[in-house]
Please model this.
Amino acid sequence: MKTLMKTLLLTAAVALAYPALAADPVPASRPARPDITKEQFMKQAQARFDAMDANKDGKITAEERAAHRPGRGMGPGAKAPAEITKEQHMKYAEQHFNAMDANKDGKITAEERRAMRHGKAGMKRGGCGPDGRGSGPRGACVPPASAPAAK
Model:
């Protein structure tokens, strides 16, 4: 009887401790995303537009943007045009890809994505066009960090 009790207690202790023993003490790093070609990037942009265009009228309104990306500053009060057409969205996506593809080889590498996030290699986010508007569909004009803000 004592042997059976010891066996049951030992089995219960191992069963309770197993999740802690099996857990990886150091979380594995996220696997690197593969390079993305311009064709893949544009297909993803098309899919994003189609997902946001709730009423399928070929335009994305501020309300549709807000519904698709809550809490991202894309609601009706954001500095964005009232509507964005599919053509405008795809043009912006192409400009965005071209800005990220620093070496112009037709694909975006992990290093190029990292550079875009950190504003390296001349790929800083923001900037103003000749008309005083930003190049993105939201039209925001964000001066580069090194340049003084326009008055």
Summary: The helical segments are 2-22, 38-52, 62-68, 86-100, 110-118.
